[in-house]
Amino acid sequence: MWVVASLHVLLVVLLGSSPEVHARQESFSAGRWIGAANFEDDTGDLEHCTIAATYNSGITLALGLLPDFTLVMVLTNPAWSLHDEVQFPLQLAVDHRWSKSVSGMGIAPNGVFVCIGDDWQAFEALRRGRELRVVAT
What we know:
By secondary structure, this protein is an alpha+beta fold. The chain is built from two helices and nine strands, in the order αββββββββαβ. Helix content is about 15%, strand content about 45%. Strands 1-2-3-4-5-8-7-6-9 form a nine-stranded antiparallel sheet. The relative contact order is 0.18.
């Protein structure tokens, strides 16, 4: 179920709309990145935090952090043609700080969902790194 919830979170970021109304949403930006922290209506607890950027290549990278510190990622590109829920191996690497083998899941027609998990080293590498490499293996 958390995969569906985290996928929904990132798709909202990528598509820019959601039928949900949050008690509080704090938007922010940093360079070409735009993001938002969303909080629960009744408690004010963090619901999710997302950030996304589109690159000259046409790829949009979105990262999401869930309340249990699960880190998720979605990559989209209008030029891709993918099938829903087809899984394939990926290798992620940030500079020489961190790398991890993960499973990507197709989101038709042009997206890939990746659950990085509650990997604090991944979070720090993404936070401080300069280059993220995603390679289909």
